[in-house]
Design a protein that fits this description.
Elements lengths: L4 H13 L2 H8 L3 H15 L4 E4 L2 E4 L1 H28 L5 E7 L4 H14 L4 E7 L2 H8 L5 E6 L8 E16 L13 H5 L3 E4 L19 E4 L2 H9 L5 E4 L4 H6 L2 E4 L6 E10 L5 H12 L5
Parallel strand pairs: 3-4, 3-5, 7-8
Antiparallel strand pairs: 1-2, 5-11, 6-9, 6-10, 6-11
């Protein structure tokens, strides 16, 4: 059975405009042409799409189903046509992007909003990764761009990077935590007596990395750095956090930064993509992200 896109457009117009005559006017056809198309499909499908109620024709359940599913098909058809034209002109219809959980999300969203305002025909599919997870997603072609991929860079041919900058992390605890009352720089032994909050690496196949630098003891595991911030603000545990992420809690006195002997943490973060990704959309997005200075 052949169901034409023309039928779906007719059913959609009839439903929106309320009558065959108004639908025919919108589609620049005569009403008899609409009736002929509907009758032909009714014969092929051996169902009735409309039933008379007084002077009006209303959809049967079968007609209503065809209308609703047909609208989905029309939307997909239009999207496919747009994607084909977009790709032929060198623009990707969709960009799959991973952002590392360390990167301040507000700056990323502002940059993405500016990009979409300028290039509304490109869709963005955004996911969050941690530590090695972004590199793995790029290597496995699950994403085309990683925002905030951490050092060290994998020694794999075909990967390009551009440095975003450095992100400092500080050792922070809730102001009521016992470590906050010591009044001196902390040692590894001091910290080992307390629960550390650890972020899981989202790598699926590679050996996961972790920043449990001072943690031979009890740990509390979370999935993202925002979860880590929330856990430490709640007093669940301690650990290194991006200074910007906890600026309000530090300003209010809810959390305090403590010095740790011989330990400082500064993450070197990159934009990363594959050399095979040559689309204009990806290039434009990279340029906008770099100019946004996300880590400053």
């Amino acid at each position: 059975m052949d169901i034409s896109l023309d039928l779906f457009r007719i059913l959609d117009a009839i439903d929106r405009r309320g009558s065959f005559a108004a639908a025919a006017e919108e589609l620049d056809k005569v009403a008899s042409a609409l009736s002929y198309t509907i009758q032909k499909h009714e014969q092929q499908l051996e169902v009735s799409l409309f039933v008379r109620q007084g002077r009006r024709s209303v959809f049967t359940p079968a007609g209503r189903l065809l209308l609703e599913r047909g609208r989905e098909i029309l939307k997909a058809s239009d999207s496919l046509a747009n994607d084909v034209v977009t790709l032929a002109r060198g623009w990707e219809p969709r960009l799959r992007v991973a952002v590392d959980s360390l990167v301040p999300v507000e700056g990323v969203m502002a940059a993405l909003a500016a990009f979409l305002d300028k290039y509304p025909g490109v869709e963005i599919d955004l996911c969050e990764e941690v530590l090695g997870g972004g590199w793995e997603a790029l290597i496995q072609d699950r994403v085309q761009l990683v925002i905030g991929a951490p050092a060290p860079l994998p020694q794999i041919p075909g990967i390009r990077t551009e440095k975003l900058g450095y992100l400092s992390r500080v050792f922070a605890v809730h102001h009521d935590h016992p470590l906050a009352r010591l009044g001196r720089p902390l040692t590894a032994e001091d910290i080992a007596q307390h629960r550390m909050v650890i972020v899981h690496d989202t790598s699926r196949n590679e050996i996961p990395r972790s920043h449990r630098l001072l943690s031979p003891g009890s740990n509390f595991f979370v999935q993202t750095f925002p979860h880590k911030v929330a856990a430490q603000r709640a007093g669940i545990g301690v650990g290194f956090l991006p200074a910007k992420a906890i600026a309000p809690a530090l300003a209010s006195g809810e959390m305090v930064v403590l010095e740790v002997e011989g330990v400082g943490l500064e993450d070197e973060l990159y934009l990363a993509w594959k050399t095979t990704s040559q689309g204009k959309g990806l290039k434009a997005l990279r340029e906008m992200l770099l100019s946004a200075q996300l880590l400053e």
